[in-house]
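Q: I'm writing a short explainer about DUF4190 domain-containing protein for a general audience and would like to include a description of its predicted shape. Could you first generate the structure from this sequence?
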Amino acid sequence: MTEGAPKRGNGSGVPRYSWKAVTALVLAVGALLMPAIVALVLAAAGLVLGLIARRELKREPSLTGGALALAAVIVAAFVLVFDVILLTLPAPAG
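A: Of course. Here's the predicted structure. Afterward I'll give you a sentence or two in plain language.
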């Protein structure tokens, strides 16, 4: 590690992940597996928690999980957009 770089982890060599980032990713991936109405709620919660985690990770250099938080934001946004489109389309006539 270079001299000026911030240290990651808790000093024992094991990185300390942000629980918000992990939870956001679990919610976002869980939204992929749920029906549309439930997925909207899970994806919205995952998106908000992912954005909060990204802000927390910028303030706390001892935490890791930036990639988890970013993945949660991307997946949750995709699920939200897809489900909104799916729910606003008219039902097929038949």
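A: For your explainer, you could say: The CA atoms of residues 11 and 62 lie 9 Å apart.
Q: Perfect, that's easy to follow.
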